[in-house]
Amino acid sequence: MTIHSEPEEIVIYVSAGFATAPHFLDAFAAALSARYEQAGSRVRTIVHYPYGDWTRQRQRQLREITSDLWNNAHQKPSLYGGKSLIKLITENHTPEQQLLLIGHSAGAVASVQAADLLVKEGISILGVIQIGSPKCAIPPSLKHCVLYLNAANQLDQSIDPIPRLGTWGGWTKTRLGVHRWNSMKHAPIHRRTLPLIGGHADYFRDHNPYIWQEATNLETTINTIWTWLQLIEKDDEHD
Question: What is the pTM assigned to this prediction?
Answer without folding.
Answer: 0.94
